[in-house]
Amino acid sequence: MRQRAPSFAIALAGAISIAGAAGAAEPAPLAGCYERVYDDAHLAQHKGQLVVRVALTVAAPSVEEKSDNGDRIVADGILKMWTRGRSKSFDSLGACRAAGKGLMCLGSLSAAEADTCKSKRDGVRDCRVDPAEAGSFTVEGRPDGVLVSIPTRLELVPAPYDVGPYLSLSAGNAENRAFLLKTIGCKYSARR
């Protein structure tokens, strides 16, 4: 019998439901909602870009805890990415710590079990680059939004978070490693 990790869906739902109440007490750094939808002209110039839409919600942390290195978790970052040819988003709920003037958010591990990929190339796959390490993303403030970057690599998974496929992105891929998002009203639902 396989042992399953705590479900990403439970963590995501908890963060979404608690974030509003927790955020009222002490706002998280860069708290807000951000999004970018890439138009056809941009995508035609960047044929190697997999990501067609990115949305990020930053809120106060859903639970008071410390990261593995002892730094205080200051925010939850709910990152959603849509890719060419797919209607469902690939998601990551990151526990974020302060990093300079921005945030460093750990990628979220899902309960899904899959074979390890033989290739480390970016893309959507039915295997995982490293089932024990989901990677991370950074969030840096910009005048009219934020810059979301992949410092090394990041793996995201679609709902219901206990099966693939998986979206794997790496810092070595110039077309899919940094995303400039604009501030939007927080009418955006992190649920989709």
Written overview of the protein:
The protein is mainly beta and 192 residues long. The chain has one domain. Helices cover 12% and strands 38% of the residues. It contains 2 helices and 11 strands. The strands form 2 sheets. It has an 8-stranded antiparallel beta barrel with strand order 1-2-3-4-5-7-8-11. It has a 3-stranded antiparallel sheet with strand order 6-10-9, with no helix packed on it. A hairpin with a 2-residue loop joins β7 and β8. The longest helix is centred in the first third of the chain and has 18 residues. The termini are far apart.
Quick take:
The chain is mainly beta and 192 residues long.
Fold blueprint:
Elements lengths: L7 H18 L6 E6 L2 H6 L5 E9 L13 E11 L6 E10 L2 E5 L16 E3 L10 E7 L2 E5 L3 E4 L9 E5 L7 E7 L8
Antiparallel strand pairs: 1-2, 1-11, 2-3, 3-4, 4-5, 5-7, 6-10, 7-8, 8-11, 9-10
| SSE succession | HEHEEEEEEEEEE
How many helices?
2
What oligomeric state best describes the polypeptide chains here? Answer: single chain
Q: Please give the largest β-sheet.
A: 8 strands, antiparallel, barrel
Number of strands: 11
Structural class: mainly beta
Helical content band = 10-25%
Mean pLDDT: 80
Provide the descriptors you would attach to this structure in a database record.
192 residues, three-stranded antiparallel beta sheet, 2 helices, disordered C terminus, disordered N terminus, 11 strands, mainly beta
